[in-house]
Amino acid sequence: MTLEREKKVKSILITQPPPELGKNVYEEFAKKHKLNIDFRAFIHIERLSPKEIRKQKIAFTDFTAIIFNSKNAVDNFFSLAAEMKVEMPPETKYFSINENVSNYVQKYIVPRKRKMFTSKGNEKDFLTVFKNHKKEKFLFPCSDIRKSTIPDYMNSQGFDYTECIIYRTVSSDLSDLKEVFYDILVFFSPADIKSLFDNFPDFVQNNTRIAGFGDSTQQAMADQNLILDIPAPALNIPSMVAALEVYVNKVNGK
Prior knowledge:
Elements: E1 11-14, H1 27-33, E2 36-39, E3 43-47, H2 50-55, E4 65-68, H3 71-83, E5 93-96, H4 99-105, E6 116-118, H5 123-127, E7 137-143, H6 149-156, E8 160-171, E9 184-187, H7 190-199, E10 209-213, H8 215-223, E11 230-232, H9 240-252
Parallel strand pairs: 1-2, 1-9, 4-5, 4-7, 5-6, 7-8, 9-10, 10-11
Antiparallel strand pairs: 3-8
Helix pairs in contact: 7-8
């Protein structure tokens, strides 16, 4: 971040859907600094059709264990199962990346003891959950964009494992933003950056400051020759709202 770019901030666009009522972590920050903060999802999910699933030569009931790494995966898996008139056997085991996802699975099934497995930690901790289940036949329903951590582990450890793409991450139509300008754009994934250039291939950053969360997002920015003004997380700055707070305190205090 250069001194020439350290200009006062009045408006910020968060490239995510509007938060649920009472869960807007940016609300107090916006009030404190008298900022206009808007939310707009740059990407959305499109579920594959049953025909596209069949093309992958996968039958859900052939598997004894299902791996879920997100609520999107849960919704799309059970939506497809319902449309294809597939009823998962009651003895099917479900492995969820965290307790929130595990609880979400229970929207669709009757939870049974010893059939639900989860991690209380991060993705690395999640991998340890599988070690006592070598005899299972695992299905990983996922997006076309996903980390390689789970597949790499399952394959390296010799699990009976199959991956099935059940939904795609797609760039949203942002044409209505063509003549709208913000002091800061906040990105959270490489797919957000892709959407920016899918919609505005001639985008020029100029004085727009850009915030990027995570290494992969920041690498996608570098690949497009964008200037990263506000990185997160950083030392003693664990979240995006914290990173924005530090930046706005600095530039608006001048």
